[in-house]
């Protein structure tokens, strides 16, 4: 991502991909573990949609850290609706391109809105892969979005140090010929 790129189309595409996948999440899957350590599917869905609302809130002019990193209780049968509402809020909040150049505060510092969206793209794409591993491991996820997320992650999430203030485990080795989604997950410390 350069200083003039517009990450909104990619970010909205990533949210659309997430929304479609969340729509396939059956209630009986919600207690299953995900590749994201410490999160079952229900908790990871709540966190990922919470991130989407933080993104919307920053686009609306708020300080993202003022919102929790997870949504409150969602009915087991309303995850698709919750994802749709998050998508609509993000789209409306970032519709005005001036938000791209406004300074916003996110967990990794005060950055221009476009840099916040690029950073959050990494989180949304990665968690979509995590969710897919439970909901539909054969789901065809967008490789272009994963490549953009991986490029951003490699540029801004160093291989070392990890842990503490850097909320990722050590880089995991990805198997030869691994998909870009698996390489992204490995870079962010998922056990592959």
UniProtKB/TrEMBL annotation:
Q: Which GO terms describe its molecular function?
A: metal ion binding
Pfam families xrefs: MDMPI_N
The name this protein goes by in its record = TIGR03086 family metal-binding protein
The organism's place on the tree of life at top rank: Bacteria
Q: Could you say which residues form the signal peptide?
A: none
Q: Which InterPro entries does the protein's record reference? A: CHP03086 (IPR017520), DinB/YfiT-like (IPR034660), Maleyloyr_isom (IPR017517), MDMPI_metal-binding (IPR024344)
All copies of domain Mycothiol-dependent maleylpyruvate isomerase metal-binding, residue ranges: 13-132
